[in-house]
Write a structure and sequence with these properties.
Blueprint lengths: L1 H15 L2 H14 L4 H20 L1 H15 L6
Helix pairs in contact: 2-3
Amino acid sequence: MKYLWIAFKVFAFANLLFVPSIALVLFMAYGLGGTSTSWFAAISVAALGANMAVLLSKRYSDRLWRKFNAIAGNITGL
């Protein structure tokens, strides 16, 4: 059960990392009104890709791995 809880916390943290791109996608969906799906698809894929590129950059990836290890660190005493 402890491993399931840790996996849930890591998954929730990873989802929160994509909030900026999700917010942009929702803003564009509201602005376009669903009339132009090709523009919406192009912008949403570009936003998700840019968000992922930033998160995988060396500057942020080290911080992310430290955070993931800190979340999982509470099982080291088993």
